[in-house]
Amino acid sequence: TLLAPDNIDLVARNKPILVENLKEGAAIVLDVYIENESLAINIDGIKLAFGESSLGLFHYEPVLFSSLDEPIDESRRILLSVSGLALEQMQHVRPSHGTVVRGPAYKSQRIELSKTHSKAEKIVNELNDIRIGVTRPSLWLNEHCRVCRYQSHCKTEAQRTDDLIKLVAPLSDD
Question: Are 80 and 97 in contact (CB under 8 A)?
Answer without folding.
Answer: no
